[in-house]
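Feature request disguised as a bug: please show the residue count (215) next to HTH tetR-type domain-containing protein in the output. Example input:
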Amino acid sequence: MVRVTKNATERRNEILDTAESLFSQKGYEKTSTTDITKTLRVAQGTLYYYFKSKEDLANALIDRQMQGIKKQFMDVIYDETLSAFEKIAWVFVFELDYPTGHNEIFKYLQHDNNAILRQILHVQMICQSTPILTDLIIQGNKEGIFHVDKPTLVAEFFISTIHQWADSSLFKWSKAERIARIVAIQSLFEHLFGVPSGKFDLSLLRKTVKAKFNY
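Example output, currently without the count:
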């Protein structure tokens, strides 16, 4: 048998792909590192060369999946041609209507044995998204659109709310149920961002995004 040699990036992604597949089938809690290495037909040492533990592997998997979403956020938030309102409108529509289908990436987290992965996702989502959203709020303050005294805390609350209370992977809400929960507290978001009542009406946000982003 010819031994197949793979470069580090290829091998690392192969391990992550296999872990994701097993986590989807059995769940994180029911999948061992031995399950992963047996499926891959590699030695345990190969896995531990790239990941010091199963938790380390799980963090790397969620981080890999987060990178595509983070790039989409950064492409919009740091686009100097867009106003702060156009950007926050995009954020709402991206999260609630998910026109790019990004929620499908994490659909496997609905598995009952993937609670730990859901927790990792929430932590990474808040940590990676908060600085980006903070910059958006600061821009809105400068433009006189937002009136926020503590941009970072508001950014954390905003991200936490969407990815905890309204998270379909945690509560298995339908799309309509998820949207209903956010719409119900739109007035709270308007207060937090210091915008007039009705400014975050979902129909207005969608209209803004459709005109600017063609979603």
